[in-house]
Amino acid sequence: MEGVKALFCDTDYSWVICECLSKKLVYSADNLRAEQGDKSFPLNGVNQGDKGISVNSARTDAEAGSTLMHECLHDRTEGEGDTPSDKYIDEEAKVRVAEERWRIKWGYQ
Ligand SMILES: [Zn+2]
């Protein structure tokens, strides 16, 4: 976790530690998946709100950092749309773009 924390020692992203991770429990978990109907999808992480954030234990520091960034971004991003599904998709798209900006900043592929 120390390697992951170091990735956020930047004034633009210190909120990830100060406003998100310091207020949640972070869990390492194996085989995180989402179920939708009869389909099952692998997940890198899960934001469980006040319960904490789970991160796939197989992740490297860079991958775990990206996952933590992604899950914390969900707490401060709101999707737009006419239906809950539209809002979810819009929020996920915004979070993925913001996560990608962070990954590019750190030189991650
Ligand atoms: Zn997401």
What does this structure look like?
A 3-stranded mixed β-sheet has the order 1-5-4, with helices on one face. It is α+β, with helices and mostly antiparallel strands and 109 residues long. The longest helix is centred in the last third of the chain and has 23 residues, at 84-106. It has helices spanning 2-6, 15-20, 61-75, 84-106, and strands spanning 26-29, 33-36, 39-42, 45-47, 53-56. The mean pLDDT is 89. The chain has one domain (2-106). The radius of gyration is 14 Å and the shape is globular. β4 (45-47) and β5 (53-56) form a beta hairpin. The chain contains 4 helices and 5 strands. The protein binds zinc ion (ZN). Zinc ion binds at residues 70, 74, 92, 95.
Any idea how many domains? 1
| Global geometry | globular
Portion of residues within helices = 40-55%
Task: Report the major sheet.
Answer: 3 strands, mixed
Secondary structure category: alpha+beta
